[in-house]
């Protein structure tokens, strides 16, 4: 008994509901047909007729019980149609559930690879620390549809790189001799810092040479991430600074 109970409990809920509903339809319809048949036999006095199996007798009996037989036939038709539609629906839900589980599995595996790779890249640079990066946030910035099983690069991250390049290009222009306003490395630091935080990257203001060395390593880190995880040609290269 417990084995049978375990088998039932291990079945999908949709299948259990389908079987119960189908059983109810069949029991109700067949029961109604039997009640109708017995009432017809009693009302028409067919039980008083002698037992007879020739064609005329069978035809007469079937004719009298035709409404009851129609109920039984209609019940079977409804049952078959219900089972067919229910089976299709269960198969569809099962497919959706399997696809969702597969997408989640792919997301977790891809995220784990990304985390491990990012950590290894940070360790290669002496001016970068793991504390500077919210790697999961950065991953979500790059692959915003990963939970759906898609690892295409997001438009948001592409725009992030475009805007970063604008900051670097402007700083390159300002460092040119004769440019009005000139180049201020402190102002440059603040602009880069405020922009990087939108991708989960935190940098701190530092003396000129220390900051520029950290910035080089930061851009090297991002370039390696882009080259390793993003299809070639989908993202702009980070502009080479000329203000060092």
From TrEMBL:
<feature type="transmembrane region" description="Helical">
    <location>
        <begin position="78"/>
        <end position="96"/>
    </location>
</feature>
<keyword id="KW-0812">Transmembrane</keyword>
<keyword id="KW-0472">Membrane</keyword>
<feature type="transmembrane region" description="Helical">
    <location>
        <begin position="12"/>
        <end position="39"/>
    </location>
</feature>
<protein>
    <submittedName>
        <fullName>Uncharacterized protein</fullName>
    </submittedName>
</protein>
<keyword id="KW-1133">Transmembrane helix</keyword>
<dbReference type="InterPro" id="IPR053597">
    <property type="entry name" value="Retron_Ec48_antiviral"/>
</dbReference>
């Amino acid at each position: 008994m417990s084995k049978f109970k375990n088998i039932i409990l291990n079945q999908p809920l949709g299948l259990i509901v389908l079987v119960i509903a189908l059983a109810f339809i069949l029991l109700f319809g067949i029961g109604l047909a039997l009640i109708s048949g017995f009432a017809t036999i009693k009302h028409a006095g067919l039980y008083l007729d002698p037992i007879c199996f020739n064609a005329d007798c069978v035809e007469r009996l079937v004719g009298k019980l035709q409404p009851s037989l129609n109920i039984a036939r209609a019940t079977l038709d409804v049952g078959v149609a219900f089972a067919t539609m229910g089976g299709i629906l269960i198969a569809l839900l099962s497919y959706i559930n399997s696809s969702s589980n597969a997408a989640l599995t792919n997301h977790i595996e891809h995220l784990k690879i990304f985390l491990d790779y990012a950590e290894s890249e940070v360790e290669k640079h002496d001016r970068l620390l793991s504390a500077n990066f919210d790697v999961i946030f950065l991953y979500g910035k790059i692959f915003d549809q990963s939970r759906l099983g898609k690892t295409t690069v997001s438009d948001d991250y592409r725009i992030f790189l475009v805007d970063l390049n604008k900051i670097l290009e402007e700083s390159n222009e300002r460092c040119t001799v004769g440019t009005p306003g000139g180049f201020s490395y402190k102002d440059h630091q603040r602009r880069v810092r405020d922009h990087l935080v939108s991708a989960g990257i935190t940098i701190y203001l530092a003396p000129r040479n220390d900051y520029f060395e950290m910035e080089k390593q930061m851009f090297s880190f991002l370039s390696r991430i882009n080259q390793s995880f993003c299809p070639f040609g989908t993202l702009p290269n980070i502009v080479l600074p000329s203000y060092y």
